[in-house]
Known about the structure:
heterodimer, A: alpha+beta, Ubiquitin-like (UB roll), DNA polymerase, domain 1, 2 domains, 5-stranded mixed beta sheet, 5 helices, 33% helix, 16% strand, B: alpha+beta, Aldehyde Oxidoreductase, domain 3, Aldehyde Oxidoreductase, domain 4, 3 domains, 6-stranded mixed beta sheet, 18 helices
Amino acid sequence: xxxxRGWPVGEALHEVSLTVNGVVRQARVPARRLLxxxxxxxxxxxxxxxxxxxxxxxxxxxxxxxxxVRSCLTFAVTVAGQEITTVEGLAGPDGEPSPVQRxxxxxxxxxxxxxxxxxxxxxxxxxxxxxxxxxxxxxEGISGNLCRCTGYQNIVKAVGRAAELAREGGEGTx
Amino acid sequence: MSTRLFGEPVARREDxxxxxxxxxxxxxxxxxxLAAAFVRSPHAHARIRDIxxxxxxxxxxxxxxxxxxxxxxxxxxxxxxxxxxxxxxxxRTAYPLARDVVRHVGEPVVMVVARDRYLAxxxxxxxxxxxxxxxPVVGVEEAVQGAHLVHQDVPGNVGAHLVQEVPxxxxxxxxxxxxxxxxxxxxxxxxxxxxxxxxxxxxVYARWDADDGSLRVYSSTQTSTSVRMAVAAKLGLPLPKxxxxxxxxxxxxxxxxxxxxxxxxxxxxxxxxxxxxVKWTEDRREHFVASAHERAQVxxxxxxxxxxxxxxxxxxxxxxxxxxxxxxxIIVPIITATQLLGPYKIGAYRVEFSxxxxxxxxxxxxxxAGRPQAVFCMERTMDKIAAxxxxxxxxxxxxxxxQPDEFPYDxxxxxxxxxxxxxxxxxYPESLRLLxxxxxxxxxxxxxxxxxxxxxxxxxxxxxxxxxxxVGPYEGGxxxxxxxxxxxxxxxxxxxxQGHETVFAQIAATELGVPLDRVSVVTGDTRRFGYAVGxxxxxxxxxxxxxxxxxxxxxxxxxxxxxxxxxxADPRDLEIEDGVVRVAGNPGAGVPLAxxxxxxxxxxxxxxxxxxxxxxxxGTADLSRPPVDDGDEPGLEGRDYYSPVRxxxxxxxxxxxxxxxxxxxxxRILRYAVVHDCGRMINPMIVEGQIHGGVAQGVGGALYxxxxxxxxxxxxxxxxxxxxxxxxxxxxxIQTAHLETPSPxxxxxxxxxxxxxxxxxxxxxxxxxxxxxxxxxxxxPISPSELHExxxxxxx
Lengths: 174, 796
């Protein structure tokens, strides 16, 4: 006999409800369910990737109440009631890519794309906190995320470009 | 051919989905699949006495447990030896699950299938394997002593031994030339292990359809067509009943060309047996201990040269560590041995390698595939000659260069494809001139002296390479124009981030004269294209790019023929522009490719309004001929293959300026310059991206990355916390300049670019650190503590 989503009855399940990309989502999961697995496998948001399962590569970075966190080092039950933004939630309400998303594509800041969601979330928070970072701040800001394809040069360029696009966009809507 | 899109830095068509989380990687598929997990050997060398699964049988969510004993015929056989070679006299491959003996930490012993991965790992943890430990063999120099054996039937642990010799023009052997040379040097070089380490590990997901007896396998692989053939053979299925798809793949860099992995056989087999979807996603630790590594070699060099630094004789003996098994044959040491000569004319050359078993993870190609070791050897040799003669390092290289008027240049060796190593084109003196200018080579002594006045230690280094790219046997392309005017391109090789959807679309759009947004590209899906080799050896653009161009030319020819009839014009007067076939110079008369596609397929049934034109009572047919002429086919499509007579040879030169801290021995790269020649570039933005990424991996290999095995064969740093890959803070800004020496071997004049960036980096950094420190650097990677130790020992 098994519970919802196939979890065994033997393992206690917890109702976890949180706001993901502006929508309240819930699922019953065991206490050990990682936030990364919760997002990917319980909620079907597979844009968040898992590269090392020990918090080093940054692929699984999501925004928790606006702050970048490693979802592979976070239990889903510990963030119940909080707000999560994943790569799927970075675009505008009309589906318009965010300045960071546009800049990454424009500057060829991704190749295989596996690390990209983590970078996009990290950089979104970085630019919110510091809308005009210099190169040193940019490099520092992305130095917790591994990329095995690009050599980072175009990622650094993309962050600068995203800041520019955000400023232009801000002026446009002001 | 129009150059409108070919050669332009067109934005990537992959990125839309990848920046919005809509990419589909292996673990994003199969939401409801059962999960597999593996019990892996904790010992480097041991005999399995007993496997007790009883405690696991009651585990929640358990579906099945399999050991070697459970595997049927064929599935239980050793995995294939993919690339046999006469010199590989003792090739050995693993069983999909260990049979009696395990030969490296991480070797799969038991497969567990459960409702999800958490539960599969729970059950796996309850399985008790009783091992009798055997003496592990670690390190090639220990291994060749042969005191203990990795495989009992492989004496001396030698899997392969190969000698290649190219005599001097006068007919003398290399040893003889070295002995007779005015100057001689001999020395030893060491390169440690690293690994491809894509951020997405391996993974397999299989769906068995019992109703029609068909199997669909998704794998994070660099070769879906060959996985398909291997799986069909292992499972005894007719090939047409098996399809293999490489979805979005999160990096490969070589490791994913190996196939079939144990998991690629076992997961589909379990899916068939259980009648359920099964998926396995590799975790990071598994990737460290159960996939593949590369690089490790010990090289002994003897070189003889004249007063100008011209090499008269070069003799290199290599011990190559290939780990516990040889599924990929001896490709890596063959490439080291044959690409070692780089852009140079060497008087006489002799290379001998022994490929050695150790109780460590198997060694198969990682980006560069033996070339970084080869270039390290040759370029260290050049620097040592320059130091010995007191000459400029660039000048010594220039004295040995093959000159532009000497192509095609035959190095007299057999390359990794079994074909002659003949360089097709290149301009090495011009490359060097560009590089020196880019990095400020000639003025560097002033920069260095000025820095020294401020207590700073700077050094400059250089490294040159030639890279055989675009190896055969072949790739194919299929191009179909449908009646909506869209162009569907497919090729069998796979993509791991190289931007194939973009560059192949650029080629098709250019060849067919259609807007880029009308072209779509599918790679690595055997449902679309069944004949292919795979993505490796910087071959995708050369092989599939040319195949697609040739297929497009067939389509174009037919489009012009069909349109000529409709327009009552001579096909030779027609051109295709913006998707419309029209008489050149007459913008009025034209027929869209969509209509040409309709007319190319004579119909009985009209499925939409456009299709009416092609039906039998439309009045457009010539009634004296059959609807489909002899030798013709319905539809506006073409298929063609490109099979090169031999490899095409890209080349490049790198230089770096480093600073070493006089106290802490920290090594910082201040400048990095690259001159790169891959023939005609399809998309320079993508080529630059490949270079950047390659250099970053090279920096990792030069300064940070190593696989630390202890004497027990335990990998001590099997995590991203301990295996140090460069972050943005470690990779320097890379300046690039391009030379475009077209290849005369293929219709598009292109050469491969995928591996170039990584190849010379260890050589360049060694050269620069040596220049900064004035101490020979003969081992890579080099850490601050190793540099500190070098300083200490050199003072003695």
